[in-house]
Amino acid sequence: MEWRELEQTCRECRACELCRTRHNVVLEAGNREAVVMFIGEGPGEQEDLQGIPFVGPAGKLLDDMLSIIDMDRSSCYIANIVKCRPPRNRDPLETEQEACISYLWNQIALVQPKIIVCLGRIAAKKLIREDFRITREHGMWVEQEGIWRMAIYHPSALLRDVTKRPETFVDLLSLRDKMRQLGIV
Ligand code: URA
Looking at residue 101, what is its pLDDT? Predict the structure, then answer.
């Protein structure tokens, strides 16, 4: 689907139970022409209310993380595995992820990023490897289908546990290095 059709299909989607409790479908933020794509898990309360990914507390931290490597929302594209808020911010169920994932494949096909950064375990399992272990494998690069991929801790995890932040700083520098290697900056 092209963008307009994808937007409309998502807005009207009733493929899983999350449609019953959502206020908004949360499709994307950032730049559709970007070469770096960040993928989170699913909308939280603020995202659901505003219809924009990463606008709550985790989003504020994500903006700070981007600024460390001289990026902002205009230099990347941001999406989630599921587009509707799971109640009480629980992990999206496998059935909900399966119902929603083709929209993300569609987004990736349209954006054609050179780099995908998974924010947290749930995205890494879908985009890198089903048995991905975030504590052991964050910051490690793999190239699949012509796209360089790595995972970093989810900003919500970094809000809960500040001791993980230095490792994430290193991972962000590695992202900047990869962008340089690929001639993106
Ligand atoms: N957490 C996510 O994974 N995605 C959002 O959009 C917001 C919080």
Answer: 98
Query: DSSP class of residue 119?
Result: E
**Band of residue 159 on the pLDDT scale cut at 50, 70, 90:** very high
* Contact in structure between 111 and 94 (CB atoms under 8 Å): no
CA distances from 30 to 60, 84, 108, 142 (A): 14, 18, 13, 24
Strand, helix or coil for residue 142: strand
Q: Which long-range contacts (CB under 8 A, 24 or more apart) does 175-180 make?
A: 175/36, 175/69, 175/115, 175/117, 175/150, 176/69, 176/70, 178/115, 178/141, 178/148, 178/150, 179/35, 179/36, 179/115
Condensed to tens digits (0 to 9), the pLDDT of residues 48-85 reads: 999 999 999 999 999 999 999 999 999 999 999 999 99
pTM flag (> 0.90): yes
| For the CA of 55, the nearest atom of ligand 1 | 7
The best mutation among 37, 41, 107 to test binding of ligand 1, ranked by most ligand atoms within 8 Å of the C-beta, falls on 41
